[in-house]
Every structure is written in structure tokens, then in C-alpha cells.
Design brief:
The chain is mostly beta strands. Helices cover 3% and strands 60% of the residues.
């Protein structure tokens, strides 16, 4: 266990083959790659980058990311809620699985969402980056995409 001030200055790169990778900490940066493992997120970071082949990416409770959040999966769901403030940029891209993002109110967000199934955007939106609190990209080639407010439980 590290003191919180020291942990917030660290970058962590994790690789997991099988099973579940659980990360519950405050860091500067987190990069996680998994082949056949779920990635469970908790805590806070300035930047998070997650890549899975056949595994889910999800948060059990809302996470705090101040800069950039990026998650990609070939065959798994991405289900992440953000706490008090959304990251400046969110990129959640999936080939065969659902993408569900919970964003804090009030927004507005610059949202680019698309899917091969259904797409639901239930947050305040803007069409210009100048008025957006964050830029959100959510895409699934063969799954559903939902972008909703985390507090109202609209998902």
C-alpha cells in the first residue's frame, strides 16, 4: 500500500491473460491489456487506457478520470460510470458487445454514438466542442450503445 500522494504520481501498466483484473486505486495513468480477462475499474486516474480481446470492461462504482478514458474490446461489453465529472475525452469502441456509459449531469456533451444494433443517447448534447464539457465517442459494430446520465439511472 502506497500513500495516496505517492500513488497519484504513478503510472501502472498491467497485462492479464485469463481471469479478472481488478484495479481499485488512485493513479496518474493506468494502461491495462487483457487477452481473455475482464477488467474491473475503481478509483481515480488522470488517464485510463484499456484493451481486451475477449473480456468485459466495467466499473462497480463510478470512477473519476480527469483527462482521457479509452476502452476497446473485440468480444466483450464496456460498461463504465463516471463520478462527479466526466473525462475530457471518452472513447469506448467495441466490435462484438455492448457499450454503456454513465455520465454525470448536467453536461452538455459532444456525443458521437453508433452501433450495429440500437443507439440511445440520454444526456444533454451540444453540436460544438466549444460548449461541450467533454467529447464522447461510443461505438459498437455488433452491439447496443447507451450513453446516459449516471445519477438518474436512465440506462
Amino acid at each position: 500500500t502506497l500513500p495516496p500522494d505517492q500513488a497519484r504520481r504513478l503510472s501502472l501498466t498491467a497485462r492479464q491473460g485469463l481471469g479478472e483484473l481488478v484495479i481499485q486505486t488512485d493513479l496518474d495513468q493506468l494502461v491495462a491489456r487483457s487477452m481473455h480477462a475482464d477488467v474491473v475499474l475503481g478509483g481515480a486516474a488522470r488517464r485510463i487506457e484499456i484493451h481486451t480481446v475477449t473480456g468485459d470492461v466495467h466499473s462497480r462504482t463510478p470512477i473519476a478520470v480527469s483527462g482521457q478514458f479509452s476502452a476497446s474490446s473485440a468480444d466483450g461489453d464496456i460498461t463504465v460510470d463516471f463520478g462527479e465529472a466526466a473525462p475530457k475525452t471518452v472513447d469506448a469502441v467495441n466490435r462484438n458487445g455492448d457499450v454503456e456509459l454513465g455520465l454525470p449531469e448536467p453536461g452538455p456533451y459532444l456525443v458521437q454514438a453508433s452501433s450495429g444494433a440500437s443507439t440511445k443517447v440520454r444526456v444533454a448534447e451540444t453540436s460544438t466542442s466549444a460548449t461541450a464539457v467533454a467529447r464522447i465517442t461510443a461505438r459498437s459494430d455488433n452491439g447496443d450503445v447507451v450513453v446516459a446520465n449516471v445519477r438518474r439511472g436512465e440506462r
